[in-house]
Here is the input.
Amino acid sequence: MSRPISAQINLAALRHNLSIVRQYAKHSRIMAVIKANAYGHGLIRVAKTLHEIDAFALLELEAAIQLREIGIHQPILLLEGFFSEADLISIDHYQLDTVIHHPEQIAMLAKHRANKKINLFLKINTGMNRLGLAPREGIKAIHTLKNLSHVGEITLMTHLACADDPAADREINDQLNIFSEILNITRLPCSLANSAAIIQHPQTHQDWVRPGIMLYGASPLIHKTATELDLKPVMTVSSKIIALQQLNTNDKVGYGGTFRAQQPMQIGIVAAGYADGYPRHAQTGTPIIVNGQRTRIVGRISMDMLTVDLTGITNIAVGSPVILWGDHLPIEEVAKAAGTISYELFCSLSSRVKVITTE
Ligand SMILES: Cc1ncc(COP(=O)(O)O)c(C=O)c1O
Here is the structure.
C-alpha cells in the first residue's frame, strides 16, 4: 500500500466556482487562469472541466500546446508572451494568443513571417511595474502593430497590484486613471480584473475577466473567507495518522526539539511533510483536522512527517483520517500560519502526492 497522503480534486466545486465568477461578471467574457498546472490542480482535468469557458490563460508554451493537442479549441493566451522566434512559430502553428509587453517582442513579431493572424493582448504598465509598456509607448505600439498584416485582434490589458485590499481604492483608481488614458484614445477591447477585482471592483470587469484563485475555491480577499464568498474548495489534501506517541512533561518533539510538552500528552504522527508540499514554515499552532476534530500542529514539519496534538481528540488510532487543508479547513488559515498565501500552497503540492478526482 502506498503512503496515505492524497489530494482530492472536486470538479463539481470547480464548476460551482465558475458559476460564482459568472454571477459577478455577467457581461464579461471569462478567461480562466490555469498557469502552473492550474494552480496545482491539474492542467488537463481543469481545462476539460471548464469546457464552457470563453478562453484560457497560462504562460507555459508547452502546456498551451498540450491543450491544443487534446482538442481544446478556445483561445489560449500566453500571459508572458514569447521569448524567441521559435516560440512565435509555435504560437502561429497552434493558433495561440499572446501578450505583448516589451518592444523586443514587437520587433520579433514584425520580422515574423506568419501563416495566420495572431491575436494580441497589449499589456500596459499602470503602476505595478512588473510587465507592460508605458501608456505613451503603448499608443505608438498599437500604430506599429496595426500595420502588420499578420496581427489579428488587439486587446489592451493591465494587472492590478492591490485589488485584494479593501483599503486600496486609491491605488486601484490611480491604475484605472492611467489605463483609461490609453483606452479612451484607442477604444480597444480590454481586460483588467483578476479574482479580487471581479469581486470587489465591478468597474474593472470590462470585456474580459481573468479569474484564477477564486476558481480553485480560495478567497482572493484579505478580509473575507471563501465561505463568505460562497466559494468551495476544489482541493482537499488528506492523510492519516501513522504512529502515536505518549509524551511526559518536558518531552520534546521533532527536529530541534522546538516543542516541549507542558504536561503529559498524546501526539500523532501524520504522513505529510514538506516533500509533499506542506509548508515547512507552519508553526506550532497551525490548524489541522484529525478524525473530524480540529487541533494543532506541534513542533517542526519534517520532510515526510508532521506531528499533531491529540489532547481532547476522541477515538484516535493509527489510521485515523487527517485533513491538511480543503473541506472544513480553509487553505488560507494554513497559509497564514505558515506566513504564506494559498497560491503558494496550491502550487507546491508535490508530484508524489496521488490525486483522486471526484466529479
Ligand atoms: C496577468 C494575470 N491575470 C490574472 C491572474 C489571476 O489572478 P488571481 O489568481 O488572483 O485571480 C494572474 C495571476 O497571477 C495574472 O498574472
